[in-house]
Structures are given as structure tokens and as C-alpha cells.
Amino acid sequence: MAEIIQDSPELVERLRDPATVREAFGDVISRYSEPLYRQIRRMVQSHEDANDLLQNTFMKAWGSIEHFRGEARLSTWLYKIAVNETLSHLERERKRRGFSLDDQEAALINSIEADTDIDGDALALKLRKAIATLPEKQRLVFNMRYYDDMRYDDISAVLGTSVGALKASYHLAVKKIEQFFSDDD
To answer: Measured between alpha carbons, how far is 96 from 44 in angstroms, rounded to an integer?
Structure first.
């Protein structure tokens, strides 16, 4: 598990200053590319789609950087943009392909099995498949909590859902993953 990167007050100040915003945004890209890519990749499974969505995330962030005033944490703001981009992409793909949610789950599992870009042992592959069977929101909550070690308050800010509902979603996700593993034994 990787903990979410902590915000730098100095970086936020540089983002607010028109004289340093371009250089500071380059630092944002360097600092947040990897964790945002991992979050997106866990949702879409495709390396190409994840790269495109990461680029879209940074383009949207750059396009609205003048509106970022630091009321929210920079990391939370970026995750929110990335999650919204990813969910919009998944919805467009579902409509484009005429997929139901079950069809999309099957496609995710197939892409996991065919993925040569991510190494992992059989247990890690099985966990990725189990996560792919979760409903989108539970998958998001599980990924943010388990892999990124995000606090529920931060996930709440990203997803706009109460902490109590997020805890329930995470608990249900864990139970479904446990069930997935026990059904396979």
C-alpha cells in the first residue's frame, strides 16, 4: 500500500502566484503522476486508457488552476478530477459498447487476465479480479482505502459521500472480496 502524498504548503503558494504557477504545476505533475496513474489504472485496467485519463486529469487541473485557492487539499482536488474523469470514461465506454454492468465486469476481468504490463503473483491477480467484481463505488472506495491508505475524510472529499457511507461501502467491499476468495477454494 502506498500512502497518499502529503500536500506541500510551499507548492500550493507557488501555484497561486502567477509568476511561479507554470513551474509549480510541473512539480505537481512530477509529484502526483504516479499515485494518480495507479488510482486510474486500478479502475480502467488498460495502460493506454490510464495514460490518456491521467493526461486529461492534468489538462483539466491546469485549465482550472486559477480557481484552486487551497480550501481543499491539493491531493484531494487532483484525485477528485481523476476520479471524475475515470468514471466519465467508464460510462462512455459502457454506452459505446452497449455494456451492462455485468458485461463491464467481465471485460475488466478479461483485461486483467490478458494484462502483461502488471507483474504479480497468483494471489495479487486473484485480488485484482475480486476487486473487478465490485460495484464501481465500492471499487473506488476499496482502492483508495486499501492501496492508497487514504483517510475516510479525504475519500469523502473526493467522492462527495459521507464518511459513514464510505465505511459501509468499504466493509461491504471487503466482505465481497472475502467471499470471492472463499468461493474459489
So the answer is: 15
